[in-house]
Amino acid sequence: MAGASLALLWLGASSLIEPARSAMRARSDPVVWAWSGGIGADSARVKAKVDPAGRKVRLLVTREASQEGQYVEPTGPAAAGNVWSFQLDGLRPGTRYSYGLEVDGELESESGSFQTFALGASSFKIAFSSCARTGSASKVFDTIAGHQPLLFLHLGDFHSEDFRTPSTEAYRAAYDRALRSPAQARLYRSVPIVYVWDDQDYGARQADRSSPGREAVQQVYREIVPHYPLPAGDPSGPIYHAFSVGRVRFVVTDSRSRRTPRSELDTPEKSVLGEEQKTWFKRELLEARDSHGLIVWVNTSPWIAAAESGADHWGGYTTERLELARFIRENEIRSLLMLSGGAHMLAIDDGSHNYYIGWDKGFPVFHAAALDKRGSQRGGPYSHGPHAGGGHFGLMEVRDQGGQIEVVWSGRNQKDRELLTHQFTVE
Hints:
alpha+beta; 7-stranded mixed beta sheet; 7 helices; about 20% helix
């Protein structure tokens, strides 16, 4: 029943869960970590690590409102590192589900949850940030979870190992340390993940396409992360992808796998995205312009920045930045905004400093970081901020009743204090 439709064989979950939980309180759980992602209106993915190897594993998925559930078998054998994958199909739109791992006939003590997306115009809230120390136990993760966002977008530096080796085991160990952290585990169990790397979880600091660990991390990402389908395919390649929530299209770009070394001259050949991803990105923008009310570009590198030779942000890749800005202007893609990490600060620009686009006012940009690293400022100027520091995250609320789409941005710290805010409407 790999990838089985949950609409088929719903069971009374209460009678299954409670006896199993009572029996397992006397034992230690073999489930190391679990998290969900790849959420749609009727589907989701769950990945979990179970130790030791050789266990029989399945997933109990429960529709919370009715307490009805179904067991789902894994999609295949465990990946390296004893990671099991589950594809959930036939779910109900706009519905909350919980899940738990059954190992050798006994249900684990901890459960996870997610909510499927509503169909059509809908309002929702997401959280996003980037840049955490490996295994961080920062309070910020609990603060984010307290907002109960529909999704958490992690925009890179999931860990900060700064790898300079092609070791798949080293990458797996770094992800394990993060996912074992109780604070992070609570967030990732309760909120589905959307994740794209930046430099220090992809390779070394300011890493690019020449990183010796490129193929290793691309493989491990596919093993561990419950991601959306990746247009670059398997078993390796860039991890760019896109998904929709109601009338909002999220376009997530990988700014490391194909990045030209920053030391090269700023010519038309110098690229953050690489030609294949850039072609895909432009196509996504055109299709979303005609089919969605709002486009969110998820980009890990600071976009607003003065030209600077050798810079690791878009200011070091101004020829490609101008190419993309002209494409956006010439194709009248006016419903675009950007969410970004890559700098340890909160900052918002309402578009007034995004002059590359060639309109009186460019698309708005929102930076949110760092989760728990020291503060720093990059790029700018910005209309709001910057506020440098750790314990930072952003909230984006989308209010969509079928007409104009209203967007509310809030930059916050781990004490949940609002440091900056901006609100605007997309026609």
